[in-house]
Amino acid sequence: MKATKEPKSPTQVIVRVEIPAETVSKKLDELFRRASREIHLPGFRPGHVPRAVLEARFGKDFLNEDAQTELIEEYLPQALQQLQIRPVSPPQTKPGEFDPQKDFAFEAEVEVLPEVTVQNYTNIEIEDVHAEPVQDSDIDAVLERLQVDNAALLPKEGQKSSVVEAGDIVEIKISGEEEIREWQASPGELTGQLIGHSVGETVFIKADDGQQLQVRIEGVKILEKPDIEELAKTLGHEDVAALRAKIRHELEESRARRRERTLKLKILDTIIAQTPIELPPRFIEGLVAQELERWQRQGLPEPSAEDVKRLREALEQRVKRELVLDAIKRREGLALSDADFEKLLEEEAQKREMKPIKFRAMLEREGQLQSFRSDAEDERVLQFLYEHAKILSKER
């Protein structure tokens, strides 16, 4: 096999492959043997139909198209590997003339990601983003969630023990299912349609898309929230004030991390805006199609033309971010060494209270090992850009 490549554009490569006549002849012999086994003709046992009989019955060239297809499927991947080309969408092939006695040549138009050259990526000036200050109401909301998380689920008592009221936990059975589920009746939400109904009733719940769900109310329970002072001590704090102080600190740290993440992405997007990047169109359309298919599987409403436009723009920006991060990583030598990666795995395993070998095995089993490494390298590049940027004060 002989393979050559010719750049057509930053995102397209023409690959030319030539297969020797001897290989073509062997492929046709193989196909005739296969046809002899699969085609049943009177007077011949399966697998014993002579080639001359098949050619006389169906024509000498009746397997030529199959031969072309199989030769392309077999030798194109080999050519791409030999030429070190990584397609990002299915190649579009164009076979040449086919003669069983001659070499067979074909072309493939292959979409690839472009080689991005980033010139100016240090001393990027961006306006600061202030982290939102933590309010007492933010702390109150966290305390409320903690009380709900640590609440006891008790049978409802009193005159309305069988009637669903706002906030109640309702045991329901969906028509066609055996499992009993627990839903909280929340006004303004889907489950709010259970309010006012009683145990034993069958209720038809109407979803936003007009579909109806038939459920039977099996029981009603209430959440008994713990006393806040007792909860603080249960969670290892001296009193409520100490718990509130910890919550405030954690919220401030979380918002500081969010601010830094926002700034890092602003720096990256500023670099992208000044860097010419051509994206492979069929590759992007493939990503859009995959995302729309995912929406459909989740039962989401049909997206509008504007929704699809925004989706395409978001996917294009995501790909551009990946390309720019990769270009800077290579230029600055920010890829993780194997030793650094092993150390990172150990640190992450420690955080999760797992043994490093089990953590690695889990990532490999889930097919996430390489993406874990890539994400860590991307974060390295973002940190480099952040440390070499100029954050301008923002007037309040």
Amino- and carboxy-terminal Cα gap: 68 Å
Q: Specify the helix fraction band.
A: 40-55%
Name given to the CATH architecture of one domain: 2-Layer Sandwich
Largest sheet: 5 strands, antiparallel
Helical/strand content category: alpha+beta
Globally, the shape reads extended
Low-confidence stretches: none
Tally of extended strands? 11
Indicate the CATH topology of one domain.
Alpha-Beta Plaits
CATH class of one domain: Alpha Beta
Radius of gyration: 32 Å
CATH homologous superfamily heading of one domain: Trigger factor ribosome-binding domain
Strand residues, percent: 15-25%
* Average pLDDT level: 91
- Give me the strand/helix succession: EEHHHEEEHEEEEEHHHHHHHE
Distinct helical segment count = 11
